[in-house]
Amino acid sequence: MQRRYFLGLGLGALVTGCGVSGPVVMPPDTTLYVVRHGDRLKEDLSEDGKQRARDLVTALEGEPLDFIFSPSIQRNLDTAAPLSQARGLPISRRAQENPTARILRDAQGQSAIWVGNKNNIRKIWEDLSLLEPAPLEYGDLHVVRSDAFGVVTVERRRFGMP
Known about the structure:
- The longest helix has 14 residues, at 74-87.
- This protein is of the alpha/beta class.
- The protein has a seven-stranded mixed β-sheet with strand order 1-9-8-2-7-5-6.
- The chain is globular and about 40 Å long.
- It is 33% helix and 27% strand.
- The relative contact order is 0.27.
C-alpha cells in the first residue's frame, strides 16, 4: 500500500516557526529516496540484511537515480553496494552528521538515495520539517519529492522480506 503525504509551503513555515531546527529547503525537481541500511547482526549485515540490500535493487527498478549517498559505515556501504553495481554508480560517501544540505545541494534537480542510519535519517526529516514518521525500520523506503514549484511530497514504501 502506498500513501502520499503533502507538506504545503505554509505548513512548512508554520512548523519552522515552532522551533524545529530545520529548515533545509529541498530544491525544485529533486527526488531523494531514503532507506535505512539492511538488517544487521552486531555491526555487520545479517543474511537477511544482505538479501534486503539485493531487494533494494528491485525496489528501485525503473526509478531514475543519479547519485548513491551513504556514510562510511560498512553496513551502509554493504547495503548500497548491490544498487551501485546494478546502476553503475559510485557510492558517494558523506559525513553521517548533518548530511541533508550537502546531499540536496549535490543532487539538485536530480534523483539520489541516502542509505543511512536511524539518527541521520531522523536529522534529514527534522531538517526538511517533514511531519510523517521517518523510514527507520528495515525495509522502509520513503521517496521525498520536490516538484517544479518546490512543493514536497513523501511517498512511503516497503521492500524486501515481510
